[in-house]
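Severity: low
Component: inverse-folding endpoint
Summary: output formatting inconsistent between runs
Steps to reproduce: submit the following structure tokens with default settings.
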């Protein structure tokens, strides 16, 4: 029974050690899982912030590209409108020159007058066309220079802001430059064609006027008055055209200034929005990190509470098991004491029988007493089983009996002390039962 109790206590100690190791391993696994979850959440948060930043950058680039495309479209529309207005001015000038040439040719008489009128008309037409061409060339050069400067600025800004779109921008600029050159070439060809057609029409009309010279002579005075009126009207129209051109130039400059101011305002607003987005993203990241830290603290507290609860439950279980083992050990010790008392009583009875046998020389008494002690088992032998002579012990026997009883009491106390010493004090005010290791001293004490 003692061996079984020792083996059971050893198994319980091993199981307790295994449970402790498993609990430590489980705690380490839970801590590692918590750290992995926190790291995963942090990485996901960083990835989400990176995706949001990329999305904002992409949207800003798309917005800038769209605005630049709208600006190019608007500039192209303005350029087309300007070219149409210039062509209209040229047509009006040619029409005015043609009318003046017609009037001049009709006022001339004779071939010389006609030739002089035609020459004068051609010269005036050429001069006006030349002046108009020079003015238009100056305007075109100025516009082209402004366009080149604007394209250069836009290209530089696009290179600074959109390095990845530099090739597309260069290609668009090349296409636009080719388009402008083609339009200029078409404009020059149209001007030359119009001039040749005007000269041809002037010659044909001069010839026709020569044939109708007689009829026109009658209306000469009236035509002179009409000429003066036409000249005045042409002068007014020219002044009006000059004024309109000046106003258009002023409006163009004002529009350019307004565009520059609008671009600067848009740039400032975009910068402010970008800073606000960055600050908002930073605050969101801080809030997410704070929430994650709070969740981590709560998880740690929860895990600590669960671990504390488990430890308390395990402690209560260990206390119950230790109390049970202590009670079982005390019971076992009491049983061992009873067995020892029985054995000691049997031994005393055998010794007394041996003494009586030696005195009375009656060998049957020892066999009888031994058989009675064997039959009684765990019952304590009493003097009732002896004969009348044994019931009256001598003084020496009484002294020996008292000494033996004192030794038995001392042995009983020693066994209980050993049983109590088997309980281990862990410093928490409780005793935990440990297996009794008797050794040689216990064997001698048991059979003394």
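Observed output (run 2 of 3):
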């Amino acid at each position: 029974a003692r061996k079984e109790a020792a083996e059971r206590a050893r198994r319980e100690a091993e199981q307790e050690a295994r449970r402790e190791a498993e609990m430590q391993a489980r705690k380490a696994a839970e801590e590692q899982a918590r750290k992995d979850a926190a790291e995963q959440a942090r990485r996901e948060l960083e990835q989400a912030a990176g995706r949001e930043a990329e999305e904002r950058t992409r949207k800003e680039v798309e917005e800038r590209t769209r605005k630049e495309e709208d600006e190019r479209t608007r500039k192209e529309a303005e350029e087309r409108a300007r070219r149409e207005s210039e062509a209209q001015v040229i047509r009006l000038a040619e029409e005015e020159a043609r009318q003046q040439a017609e009037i001049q040719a009709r006022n001339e008489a004779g071939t010389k007058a006609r030739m002089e009128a035609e020459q004068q008309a051609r010269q005036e037409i050429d001069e006006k066309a030349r002046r108009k061409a020079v003015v238009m060339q100056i305007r075109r050069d100025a516009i082209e220079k402004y366009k080149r400067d604007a394209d250069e600025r836009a290209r530089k800004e696009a290179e600074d802001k959109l390095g990845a779109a530099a090739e597309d921008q260069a290609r668009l600029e090349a296409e636009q430059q080719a388009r402008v050159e083609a339009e200029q070439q078409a404009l020059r060809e149209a001007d030359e064609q119009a001039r040749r057609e005007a000269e041809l029409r002037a010659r044909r009309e001069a010839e026709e006027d020569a044939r109708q010279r007689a009829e026109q002579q009658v209306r000469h005075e009236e035509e002179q008055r009409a000429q003066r009126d036409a000249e005045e009207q042409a002068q007014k129209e020219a002044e009006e055209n000059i004024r309109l051109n000046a106003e258009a130039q002023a409006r163009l400059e004002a529009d350019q200034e307004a565009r520059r101011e609008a671009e600067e305002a848009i740039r400032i607003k975009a910068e402010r929005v970008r800073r606000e987005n960055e600050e908002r993203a930073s605050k969101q990241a801080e809030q997410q990190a704070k929430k994650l830290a709070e969740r981590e603290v709560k998880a740690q507290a929860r895990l600590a509470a669960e671990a504390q609860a488990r430890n308390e439950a395990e402690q209560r279980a260990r206390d119950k098991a230790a109390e049970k083992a202590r009670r079982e050990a005390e019971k076992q010790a009491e049983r061992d004491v009873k067995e020892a008392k029985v054995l000691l009583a049997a031994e005393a009875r055998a010794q007394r029988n041996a003494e009586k046998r030696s005195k009375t020389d009656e060998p049957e008494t020892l066999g009888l007493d031994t058989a009675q002690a064997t039959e009684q088992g765990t019952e304590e032998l009493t003097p009732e089983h002896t004969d009348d002579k044994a019931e009256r012990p001598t003084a020496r026997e009484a002294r020996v009996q008292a000494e033996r009883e004192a030794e038995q009491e001392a042995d009983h106390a020693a066994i209980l002390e050993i049983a109590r010493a088997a309980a281990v004090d862990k410093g928490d005010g409780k005793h935990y039962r440990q297996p009794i290791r008797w050794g040689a001293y216990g064997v001698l004490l048991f059979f003394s």
